[in-house]
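In practice, a research group might receive sequence data for several interacting partners and want a quick structural hypothesis before committing to experiments. The following worked case mirrors that situation: the sequences arrive first, and a predicted assembly follows.
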Amino acid sequence: MLTNPVLEAMKKRKSIRSYTSEQPSDEVLNAIAAAGQQAPFAAQLGSLLLKRDVKKNPFKAPWLFTVCIDLHRMETIMKARGWSRKMSDLGALILGVQDAAYVAENMVIAAESLGLGSCYLGATPMYAKTIIDDYGLPPKVFPLVQLTMGYPAEAAAVRPRYPMGFTLFEDRYPQFTTEEIARAMRVMDDGYLAQDYYRSHNAMIPLADGSEETFTYGDYSWTEHISRKLGQWGEDPSGLMNALRACGFFLDEPGTGEAA
Amino acid sequence: MLTNPVLEAMKKRKSIRSYTSEQPSDEVLNAIAAAGQQAPFAAQLGSLLLKRDVKKNPFKAPWLFTVCIDLHRMETIMKARGWSRKMSDLGALILGVQDAAYVAENMVIAAESLGLGSCYLGATPMYAKTIIDDYGLPPKVFPLVQLTMGYPAEAAAVRPRYPMGFTLFEDRYPQFTTEEIARAMRVMDDGYLAQDYYRSHNAMIPLADGSEETFTYGDYSWTEHISRKLGQWGEDPSGLMNALRACGFFLDEPGTGEAA
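A structural hypothesis for the assembly, expressed as tokens:
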């Protein structure tokens, strides 16, 4: 397999949930933020909030970034040019999620290359109202995902991934065979079990319907865990829809940009 | 400013729209796809379609990737475990866009590190129906963004970005001053003008309301261009909503996963 420092950084990255108290330098901050900013964009719709308050950080990391989809800044510029936004919130959201995610991922890999660790916090949109208050967000800024960052205080293992043939499909999307599915599940489950991941994180998700638990940490692994997440959580889209609305994003309406 | 090969690759990357006819090796393909697959995930919801057909590639690049949000594969695994998805399509979409975007961005930077260039094609969702047919996509797979890739046949310049103070906000989202807005606009506009970008790409967007053009390629630049995009395009969200529905994503409904 080919290798170089970039591929190495990507291969080595894993989520870090324990950090040293060392405050990384402003030079490191600038390098990581600049790497994020240099990500490809449709319309530079990503912006970054930073909080350096270990006490308010979920993993006591020195940095907490909140990566936002920022239509407010875009509309400010459009206004200065005599334009108002017509593009729908849904259209701008789909572009904006990508702009913001590319910024975030560049930062994660840049951090890895500088010896820092990071962890994405996927539940961020559910805390939109708190984040609006904390940072004084204007309308049309949606907090997509948070990122803890700092120097790692744990030696986490790289987590397994599906086999390549279960991810990269040439010319046609395949009809998965029973054996291919079983093999992909085995790779994931055996991989996490070998690392004793769920036991060491005490991360088994309880059965919500009250039925008896049939798994132990000896056999509870990734495919069961992810099935319990997607099979039990977030059934009602109104929580997320309300979070979007609280940030001024109305997905089923035409563009709602401020008048110029 | 700190530097290393990872930061350098991110700093040097720019969209490439002209490619040599050289077919990159399968070793290079595997390295780039593996780098993408190694991206952080919420639920491994990103999957990759590949077409190696220069004639069907918008920039005659040797590779066209279509990066998808793949709930079908996830549900296949859940079914094998006796689960069906409850999480709403909106919730899964917000997680899935991130999973898919992190894969894509890792691939872009990995490609850069191996001497390849790439370009995101942001209009991909509007071609959902064609892509479903071309690749035989099952329901619950949404083509988010395409990526052309190959060895560059042009020496494109790195495009400008907002000043850092217009992107990274510590503790509070700022109230932009008129001068800050003007400066950010100047950085972007002067930067693209210095590269003669819009003239050399013949990329001026016409005024849709039929009013007289007041710009020339001597002063038409990024802030006017992006204003015309967001100020004229995509007002009706139903095109995108229909593309999502064609792929089996219903944003305003509770989870619609197949029954186990």
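Before designing any experiment, note the following. The mean pLDDT of chain A is 96. The CA atoms of residues 38 and 103 of chain A lie 7 Å apart.
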